[in-house]
Amino acid sequence: MRANTHHEPPPLELVNITKRFGSFVANDQVSFKVEPGTFHGLLGENGAGKSTLVKCIMGYHRADEGDIIVDAASREIRSPQDAYQLGIGMVYQHFTVVPAMTVAENLLLARPDLPQVIKWKEERERLSEFLESAPFKVDLDARIADLAAGQKQKVEILKQLYLRNSILILDEPTSVLTPQEADEVLGMLRKMVLAKKLSVLIITHKFREVTGYCDEITVLRKGKLAGGGRVKDLSVPEMAAMMMGEQRRGRTIEKADRKPGSVLLEIKGLRADRDNGVGAVNGLDLQVRAGEIVGISGISGNGQRELVEVLGGQRRATAGEVIVAGKSFHMTRREMWESQFYILPEEPLRNACAPQMSVAENIALRTFDRPPLSRAGILKPRSIRENGRKWIERFKVKTPGENAPIASLSGGNVQRAVLARELGSGTAKVLVAANPCFGLDFGAVDFIHSQLLEARNSGVAVLLVCEDLDELLTLSDRVVVMSGGRLVYEAPVEDADVAVIGEKMAAH
Amino acid sequence: MNQPTDQLGWLGVPLAILAGAVGGGTPFLFVSLGECLTEKSGKINLGLEGVLITGAMTAYAASYKSGSPWFGVLVAGAAGMLLGFIHAWLAQKPKVNDIAVGIGMISFGSGLAFFFGKAFIQPLAPQLPSFDLGGWSANPALKAALKICPLFFLGVGLAFAMDWFFKSTRWGMFVRAVGDKPDAARAMGISVTSVRTLSIVFGSFLGGIGGAYLSLFYPGSWTERVSGGQGFMAVALVIFSRWNPVQCLWASLFFGGAQALGPALQAVGVSGYYYLFNASPYAFTLAVMIATCSSKRSLAGQPGALGSGA
User: Fold this and answer.
1) Segments making up each domain of chain B, as ranges
2) pTM
3) ipTM for the complex?
4) CATH class for domain B27-292?
5) Composition of chain A by helix, strand, coil, percent to 5
6) Class of CATH domain A265-506
């Protein structure tokens, strides 16, 4: 392992980096500099070339043209090991810790110079010493599988610090974290950056993180440098404009001023268990009226997922009742159709799609067994394809064609296709949506937000479960907080107090 | 303990069970340790049943031809490695299911052994030596029970060594990382293919040695029915012991002992339920599985990539 250096991190500069895959230009003459001891944001929509660019820095790809300058010299980086030699480490979007191993084992495993035989006593002493100076405290003997997502992300970052990397590249590190966890992790890193111990290059979609933590940003659009600068000199609309280009500025739909109508979705004393038999939803009562969005906030793991699974028919309730439009509701296909109940679960590819079936077939999942898509129980494949084409066009789903398996689409486009199925007909009366914008880029987020608001404006009762509090407050008419499987707070959005919500979320 | 054999009576039953635990448990031990290593790396090798039979045949043949039983053991290990290599190569091809390959390898391994082994069913090959730990006793039954093959001690040592290997060596950590989360291992620059190939090949080496024990010590002859499905049982044993080599040792002893229950009871005149008692290892397994499994959590210790095709 490298000697303990207390120097400040070296400057990292990219000069005219170009990377092509065949005829496709992923990065076109991109240049920017990460100054020592700064927090640098790399922004751009999906497919803008951010990941390709950092993979060039990490040595997964080799740039076709241009220089990567670290510590005032142009470097050949051929592998992640070369990047490590230069003190550059990366935290990936998906965890690269091994769930069955302990924190201590995972830290050791990261070392390229791991000895053949590990002397655990000495290594543990060194690890504890390292943890003394580390920004987060994690139990060395805890198994990764037993840790929450935030803790796992901390271990990923600790791994890089343990390797004494001084330039840290983070690829959407908070996409799996709750806002609270994200703030804690980024706040700690920010402190190390301020102490000039670390430079951070972070790929992110979230403006909250840019304005809260970054010193400077670089924006990519379609592989090219689209702008950049110091965060304090830029406004959020300016940054969004750089990312999306002026012409595609979001057309956010206004919330029409309307009084909520009759109760369409009513949940009474609902209870449900987790997979392990422990209660997840513990007696929940909630009403959603026509033309209002009720937002459920809460730290993940407080029963929201199980609640949505019950409403979607994926999990059995152990007690309680769900009433839709005045009738007892048992999540059968017939009832869903009769009461026009629709649902947009989280991870739609897993929860709302048949991944290997085509986009058109997936769009037809609600209606394939009735005219015009079938007659007398016989499917009409051509109608199904035509129907698919229509919705692909209207909801701007980017797909190679209506016959492509839906699993081959990007996350945002899967979400658009599912949204087309659930909301496209315009006859929905109740919609349940869970984290509908999780991991999507701004363009897709804006689209989904406007669809949800449009549905609300046209009188749909919308139940929105969302971990992103900012998003929830923007969309909802009424905010409730779920903690320990119960509702612990409820307020119209005008009166909602973010500090109180945070307190209630953490109370359990 | 100076009674003659026939007066040992009911005391003979626990003695026979202990002897069976050691004598009959050793092949389980080797095969389950081999399977444990393989499964820790994230692949399943059902083909160890074929490896076991091939090992038994090649060990017997090599011992007969060379006159050295230890040479037979080595040849059995090498034959196992060869089959393991084929399995490793096939099972890691894209879109190939390791369980299907394993079933193919059972037929292939046993077919190969039956084909080449026909000539060796009759002749007597030199057998492995044993430690006579019962020299102090005049009781012939006790003496016989305490004749223990050196391979048993080797296996016991190996179980503890493997436990240490998984916890405290570079390669042991690699095997666990590859078996639990191959993507993470790749991100750390570990070659998933090499680690799995080595694990499967070495695991099959151990399976081959288990076969050598069958034909060169207990029961000590080569027939086509020498294994009796012990290779399959070893796979179950690994699950039973939660992928922990030291627990593989206890489980193997337990299985070996349970297997000896039927014959031991028959020896003291309880012959009524002979086949029922012979089924006792399976019944015990089910009982322990039911007692230790919980519906509240999935099998603790199971390598994450096992059976996922990843």
Assistant:
1) 27-292
2) 0.73
3) 0.87
4) mainly alpha
5) 35, 25, 40
6) alpha beta
